[in-house]
């Protein structure tokens, strides 16, 4: 996971909540778009493809491509269609994690 991001936080002073992505604590903007907030925090990739293990991150940001799939509290969801909430436990989906099918 990289630590720097080319994405800019549009509200750096806004209220934040703690979430975890793959064991890493992050402070994200409460109510913000989860995919956008993860990108601004420098999180990538979000998942790996089940067959080749190729890294994937958000592409369309409108729910059509499914490249932003993550597990949220054990349920696979599209990050671009979710809002950030306090205490979320987020991880790469089990299928394709670490290149495993």
UniProtKB/TrEMBL annotation:
Name the UniProt record assigns to this protein: 2Fe-2S iron-sulfur cluster binding domain-containing protein
UniProt GO MF annotations: iron-sulfur cluster binding; oxidoreductase activity
Keywords, alphabetical: Oxidoreductase
InterPro entries: 2Fe-2S-bd_N (IPR042204), 2Fe-2S_ferredoxin-like_sf (IPR036010)
Keyword Repeat: no
Lineage: Bacteria, Pseudomonadati, Pseudomonadota, Alphaproteobacteria, Hyphomicrobiales
